[in-house]
Design a protein that fits this description.
- Helix content is about 80%, strand content about 0%.
- By secondary structure, it is an all-alpha fold.
- The chain has one domain (about 5-120).
- The protein is elongated and about 40 Å long.
């Protein structure tokens, strides 16, 4: 069951952007790994802004976000910093949290449609 709607997902996206910006400092890593987190935060911000401005549909937002999540999960290995425990664990944590949120989000608006159907039957 998809529990998270568009507004809740937007709020969670803002929290994830903040986590990607501040996380490296608090997780204890810098350099290329931290720079990559800032690029990902910028990408997430643009995705959120384009979705809020209705330049892309929420379903497309979900598809793009899934690609970002997959990249976050594999970046430690493809970017060559998997041996850095702090950075690797940070990316895995963020990726797993974002993947769980992705699975719980109703990107197709089915929750709204079923609520509308239920209201029409009263």
């Amino acid at each position: 069951m998809r529990l998270i709607g568009a507004l809740s997902h937007a709020i969670i996206d803002v929290a994830m952007i903040i986590l990607l910006i501040l996380g490296p400092r608090y997780a204890g890593f810098s350099g290329r790994q931290a720079d990559l987190a800032l690029v990902l935060a910028g990408s997430m911000f643009l995705l959120l802004a384009f979705t809020i401005a209705k330049l892309i549909r929420f379903a497309i937002h979900g598809a793009i976000e899934l690609l970002i999540v997959i990249l976050i999960l594999i970046f430690p290995w493809i970017a060559g910093f998997a041996r850095g425990v702090h950075s690797r664990n940070f990316y895995l944590f963020v990726g797993v949290v974002m993947l769980a949120i992705w699975f719980m989000t109703d990107f197709r608006g089915l929750r709204v449609r079923s609520a509308d159907r239920g209201a029409g039957q009263e």
